[in-house]
Amino acid sequence: MSTHLILSSVIFVALALILVGVFLLTRYLGPNKTEDKLKNTVYESGVTNPVGSTNIRFSVKFYLVAIGFLLFDVEIIFMFPWAVNILELGFAGIIKMFIFIGLLFAGLIYMYKKKALSWD
């Protein structure tokens, strides 16, 4: 057997034993659960008795705003390295970035036409 295989096996077993040991220590050394009814009640922003059901449906506009945020957040991630290396990329890099920005602008227009950016 290879020494690397033996070493990795020993490390794997040691980590597994340490993990089991940590779980056992927290079980026996940690605080015990108490059957306090006041502690287990719902508390939400000062309201002790929540009103309504927790199974409410959200409007699709919330999801469109979230997707739009991710879309334009990822845009910045791709544009920063381009801006740093603009001289090395040359004219072809500029054309590719304008195509990329155009596609993102088309997504913004789509969101505007679906009225995802306007709130009722």
Automatic annotation (TrEMBL):
Its main location: membrane. The chain crosses the membrane at residues 6-29, 62-83, 89-112. It comes from the Bacteria. Keywords: Cell membrane, Membrane, NAD, Quinone, Translocase, Transmembrane, Transmembrane helix, Transport, Ubiquinone. InterPro entries: NAD(P)H_OxRDtase_bac/plastid, NADH_UbQ/plastoQ_OxRdtase_su3, NDAH_ubi_oxred_su3_sf. It is found in: Cell membrane; Membrane. One of its GO terms (molecular function) is NADH dehydrogenase (ubiquinone) activity. It holds the Pfam family Oxidored_q4. It is an enzyme of class 7 (translocase). One of its GO terms (cellular component) is NADH dehydrogenase complex. Its EC number is 7.1.1.-. It catalyses: a quinone + NADH + 5 H(+)(in) = a quinol + NAD(+) + 4 H(+)(out). It is a multi-pass membrane protein. NDH-1 shuttles electrons from NADH, via FMN and iron-sulfur (Fe-S) centers, to quinones in the respiratory chain. The immediate electron acceptor for the enzyme in this species is believed to be ubiquinone. Couples the redox reaction to proton translocation (for every two electrons transferred, four hydrogen ions are translocated across the cytoplasmic membrane), and thus conserves the redox energy in a proton gradient. PANTHER family: NADH-QUINONE OXIDOREDUCTASE SUBUNIT A (PTHR11058:SF22), NADH-UBIQUINONE OXIDOREDUCTASE CHAIN 3 (PTHR11058). NDH-1 is composed of 14 different subunits. Subunits NuoA, H, J, K, L, M, N constitute the membrane sector of the complex. Belongs to the complex I subunit 3 family. This is NADH-quinone oxidoreductase subunit A. The lineage of its organism: Bacteria, Pseudomonadati, Campylobacterota, Epsilonproteobacteria, Campylobacterales.
